[in-house]
């Protein structure tokens, strides 16, 4: 017998400013690092950008009306830092703030709770140019001042705040694999920038608690729990190393304010230790800097085996082509490398489909950290086809989400506290490195890689299915 979903469970969907808004240089908005990055010639990913995206900036009322029709209880979106502070700090762009006022009011008028992500990767380019963005200590007061502005302006209407979206992704892709701006490949700089992000995150949560704003605040972590391929003890150690380096390194800091000892040792051996001062430690361990919930973005699990130090598999890029089977193993020589898992199917982008992995992620967060979880992203990126009079028969997405919702219910039955589920995504939107062909939404948006068309919206079959799920509080 499965436990029911809580009565006030936040059924919703999610998005991010750069991926939906468009209006990239309208109404006083400054440029973000992504506005610039997509213009660098010769990037390996699709030559698409968020200049127009799905034009949510102009169509937010239509989008909120669709959310209301789907019956969403919550909607997670991000605020574009350069839209409200065009140069990252100092002068405020009142028109930018006014846009988010309108959006929040529209949501509330439709009984949809706004969940606001403070940072979803669109750093003001001015801060990157001025002092190197996340690598500098200056980012800590600047990010804190930006968050303080949002708390003051919207804190009367917003109860759930997400500080940083997927710090583990924007830092490793930005500084280790060069798939995101600022496209650096340097392990030492990776962990230095990551340390600054940890401090910025702690500083904002501390401020939020000090000032006594209503509601809660936490980061969203991209968690892909690790399995060992088999019971070979060396593969089990490899899985533990992967879990330390890919998960505990971040989660321990959020929950406890300290780095795992195994990671500190590894950094010391490799010459990768960030500059950690006594004041840094005090901030990280401040009880006021503890998150109120853990945001969880879950897409897939990782399976690993041991990886030789000499001649081992290193970093490789992901499948961004949507051609199934084109991804390669990647890893850290001497520690672990990824492997196919014979029990799982993959998406066209080679992401493992593993609903049990979501249950696993939830159980691990509960048993190790004992924090409530807000599932801030989960969904299936797929090719969709618009047919007939504007229909999309995305049975595969329904099957995917159904299995994941069941896994959440099993985790709740196990004893995990889950407060909400915002799927990725509500409308189709820009996938950072995969373009517009990889679709996640309940609502199809008519545009392809290069052609904005009319940007008409069409609810997919999954839209009506999710409407029934919400109405019945999770019964399917
Ligand atoms: C997460 C991001 C989202 C979204 C999602 C899907 O990492 O927080 O912004 O993009 O992944 O990923 P992708 O677009 O690469 O398929």
UniProtKB/TrEMBL annotation:
<keyword id="KW-0326">Glycosidase</keyword>
<protein>
    <submittedName>
        <fullName>Beta-glucosidase</fullName>
        <ecNumber>3.2.1.86</ecNumber>
    </submittedName>
</protein>
<dbReference type="GO" id="GO:0005829">
    <property type="term" value="C:cytosol"/>
</dbReference>
<feature type="active site" description="Nucleophile">
    <location>
        <position position="377"/>
    </location>
</feature>
<dbReference type="GO" id="GO:0016052">
    <property type="term" value="P:carbohydrate catabolic process"/>
</dbReference>
<dbReference type="InterPro" id="IPR017853">
    <property type="entry name" value="GH"/>
</dbReference>
<comment type="similarity">
    <text>Belongs to the glycosyl hydrolase 1 family.</text>
</comment>
<keyword id="KW-0378">Hydrolase</keyword>
<dbReference type="GO" id="GO:0008706">
    <property type="term" value="F:6-phospho-beta-glucosidase activity"/>
</dbReference>
<dbReference type="Pfam" id="PF00232">
    <property type="entry name" value="Glyco_hydro_1"/>
</dbReference>
<dbReference type="InterPro" id="IPR001360">
    <property type="entry name" value="Glyco_hydro_1"/>
</dbReference>
<dbReference type="InterPro" id="IPR018120">
    <property type="entry name" value="Glyco_hydro_1_AS"/>
</dbReference>
<dbReference type="InterPro" id="IPR033132">
    <property type="entry name" value="GH_1_N_CS"/>
</dbReference>
């Amino acid at each position: 017998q499965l436990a029911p979903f809580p009565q006030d469970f936040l059924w919703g969907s999610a998005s991010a400013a750069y991926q939906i808004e468009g209006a990239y240089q309208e109404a006083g908005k400054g440029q973000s690092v992504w506005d610039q990055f997509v213009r660098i010639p010769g990037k390996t990913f699709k030559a698409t950008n968020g200049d127009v995206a799905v034009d949510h900036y102009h169509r937010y009322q239509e989008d909120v009306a669709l959310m209301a029709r789907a019956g969403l209880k919550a909607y997670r979106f991000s605020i574009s830092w350069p839209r409200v502070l065009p140069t990252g700090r100092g002068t405020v762009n009142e028109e930018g703030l006014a846009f988010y006022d309108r959006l929040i009011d529209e949501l509330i008028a439709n009984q949809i709770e706004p969940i606001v992500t403070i940072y979803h990767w669109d750093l003001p380019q001015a801060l990157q140019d001025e002092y190197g963005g996340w690598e500098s200590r200056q980012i800590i007061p600047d990010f804190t001042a930006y968050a303080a502005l949002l708390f003051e302006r919207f804190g009367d209407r917003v109860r759930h705040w997400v500080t940083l979206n997927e710090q583990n992704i924007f830092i490793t892709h930005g500084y280790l694999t060069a798939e995101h701006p600022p496209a650096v490949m340097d392990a030492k700089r990776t962990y230095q920038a990551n340390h600054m992000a940890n401090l910025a995150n702690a500083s904002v949560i501390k401020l939020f608690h000090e000032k006594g704003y209503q509601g809660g605040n936490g980061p969203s972590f991209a968690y892909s729990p690790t399995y060992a391929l088999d019971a070979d003890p060396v593969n089990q150690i490899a899985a533990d190393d992967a879990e330390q380096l890919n998960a505990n390194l971040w989660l321990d800091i959020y929950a406890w304010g300290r780095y795992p000892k195994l990671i500190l040792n590894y950094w010391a051996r490799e010459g990768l230790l960030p500059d950690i001062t006594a004041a840094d430690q005090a901030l990280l361990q401040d009880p006021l800097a503890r998150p109120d919930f853990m945001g969880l973005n879950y897409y897939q699990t990782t399976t690993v085996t041991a990886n030789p130090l000499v001649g081992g598999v290193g970093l490789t890029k992901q499948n961004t082509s949507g051609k199934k089977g084109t991804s390669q193993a990647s890893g850290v020589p001497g520690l672990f490398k990824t492997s196919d898992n014979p029990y799982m199917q993959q998406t066209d982008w080679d992401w493992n489909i593993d609903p049990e992995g979501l249950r696993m992620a939830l159980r691990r967060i509960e048993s190790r950290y004992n924090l409530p979880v807000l599932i801030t992203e989960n969904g299936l990126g797929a090719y969709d086809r618009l047919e007939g009079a504007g229909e999309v028969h995305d049975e595969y997405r329904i099957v995917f989400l159904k299995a994941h919702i069941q896994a959440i219910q099993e985790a709740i039955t196990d004893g995990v506290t889950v407060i909400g589920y915002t799927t990725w995504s509500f409308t189709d939107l820009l996938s950072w490195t995969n373009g517009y062909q990889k679709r996640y939404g309940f609502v199809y948006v008519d545009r392809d890689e290069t052609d904005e068309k009319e940007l008409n919206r069409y609810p997919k079959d999954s839209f009506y299915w999710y409407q029934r799920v919400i109405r019945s509080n999770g019964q399917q």
